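Changelog-linked ticket: manganese (II) ion example.
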Amino acid sequence: MSTYVIGDLQGCLASLETLLARLPDPRRLIFVGDIVNRGPQSLATLREVRRRVEAGQAVALLGNHDLHLLAVDAGTRPQHDSDTLQEILDAPDRRQLIDWLRSLPLAHAEGGHLCVHAGVPPQWTVAQALEYGEDVHRRLQRDDYRDFLQRMYGNQPDLWNDALRGDDRLRFIVNALTRLRIVDADGRMHLKFKDSASQAPKGTVPWFDHPDRATRGAPIVFGHWSTRGWCAARTSSALIPAASGAASSARCDSTTAFCSRSTARSRRLLAAVSSPRYPALLPAPELRPARSTPTALRAPREPACGRFW
Ligand SMILES: [Mn+2]
């Protein structure tokens, strides 16, 4: 069985269906977060991903847009102009969808790969990423989860410290796993930065390029950083323990990927393919955003990938 990791769906159901039509069975899917928002079919996409997860065909992780939906639903955060979440809020199955969404993990390990939506701070090992993601996962399942959503937003603290406690600690974990792009030499997260890596401020690097990253050598699959396009690299080792409770019958073998592209002007889903039959990344067809014209996407820049692992 092959496992395919699929990046930021963002409400683009038609593209998901087109992509899936090209992925051979039997297969297993891992959706690495941002299931909803920005795209034209957030409700239908959420229902479809839920259906596949509940049927045991897929795993889905939380991304920042999914957390935003939870916060909007809880009344702790306003909608943005670019949001396409209203149809979920108006849906008869709103409560079931929201409760299912908040039951999703933030990190997942399977077949020797760690999957997260955005990143892993350089100080954390793979085991720590899984453990800390689990802490947020448990907090979101408590009856008083809205109290946490109320205090979840903010860019501080931006530097990991084992002494962090309470909401500060959980906020850091959420920001790392669902928003991280760049860090400085100390491993401090620069969360305001959202541009391409070439625009990164002096003294910062993409989190995966930090020279002392504790996960160095471990294959990590993630999405989120849409302006980066995608990249693939041969993995050097597979050191990741299976997450507690996670099925690991599927074997991701040799290829992993950076897997999202989704901007206001152009959207494309990308699957990180780990299959003997599909040894390279498989880009999905162009999408047609509701309010704009797709633009040509840059070809992947292979040379940048060599430094990933
Ligand atoms: Mn994201």
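Closing comment: Example verified and attached. The first helix runs from residue 13 to 20. Residues 8, 34, 63-65, 117, 224 surround manganese (II) ion (CB under 6 Å).
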